[in-house]
Write a structure and sequence with these properties.
Rossmann fold, seven-stranded mixed beta sheet, alpha/beta, about 25% strand, four-stranded antiparallel beta sheet, about 270 residues
């Protein structure tokens, strides 16, 4: 299947309603190459406020490269990336101020306490004093971590460490949350809990871009964007993609599109 499938007509009510407020995250014809290898080839997508979009692709599809561009680690060769209307290349500080990120690899200070990690992150965003303390307390409370606030991060389980990273990403109340293969290494229960916590953010108007190679995580999304070899192959509601591909499930549709690159967790 080489042509990009168009399932815009099947957009969910959540997507249609939030679209009226404008996209929180927009990418237009984004390209990135490393030497002769094209990592991203004309990627165009948007995520509306209050929408959960799964970026589904096998390993090596270009998901991590896309997140590196969105977080300002690298510049795109061409195209436009904008967060809440702020062009990342032209106004990086304004754009990044609206982003919360949980990377695949943990970036917590294991020797600091849970709350101390969040307070340090708050300070990086210009939050201090009572304002920062209130934000940290609120973030920890939402994720059930209040009683662990003073514990060193290294004493936490893998699932709770991920919850701390999510709390940290939300402490400055970003409009857009990026989750880059954030469930890697978690047991099934912890993985489901983290996914449910992020899905609940839609009610607060947070736009979520969730990168994964696991089809069952994508099935919970409002919309799925299939990325393969640096190109978007299809996008739409999970069941709509299966219907258009003529398959019974999203997993089967994904395997058909990518030639067997996806996984379903056990």
């Amino acid at each position: 299947m080489n042509e990009r499938m168009n399932t815009a007509v099947d957009a969910s009510p959540r997507t249609r309603d939030s679209a009226q407020a404008g996209a929180a995250l927009e990418l237009a014809d984004v390209r990135k190459a490393y030497g002769t290898r094209e990592a991203l080839r004309g990627v165009t997508l948007k995520v509306d406020r209050g929408e959960f979009v799964a970026l589904l692709g096998p390993n090596g599809a270009g998901k991590s490269t896309l997140f590196q561009l969105l977080t300002g680690l690298f510049n795109a060769d061409s195209g436009r990336l904008a967060v809440c209307g702020h062009d990342i290349r032209k106004a990086p500080v304004a754009a990044l101020a609206h982003l919360g990120v949980v990377f695949q690899q943990s970036t917590l200070d294991l020797d600091l306490g849970v709350a101390a990690n969040l307070k340090f992150h708050a300070a990086l965003h210009g939050l201090g004093g009572r304002h920062a303390r209130d934000r940290v307390a609120d973030a920890l409370g939402r994720l059930g971590l209040t009683e662990r606030a003073g514990d060193p991060v290294r004493e936490l389980s893998g699932g709770n460490r991920r919850k701390v990273e999510l709390a940290r990403a939300l402490v400055h109340e970003p409009a857009v949350l990026l989750m880059d293969e954030a469930t890697v290494g978690l047991d099934p229960a912890s993985r489901r809990q983290l996914l449910d916590e992020v899905l609940a953010l839609r009610a607060r108007g947070v736009a979520v871009l969730w990168a994964t190679h696991l089809v069952d995580e994508a099935e919970a999304a409002d919309r799925v964007v299939v990325l393969h070899r640096g190109q978007i192959l299809a996008e739409g509601r999970p069941q709509a993609l299966a219907d258009q591909a003529g398959t019974a499930t999203l997993a089967d549709a994904f395997l058909q599109m990518t030639g067997g690159g996806g996984e379903r967790s056990d």
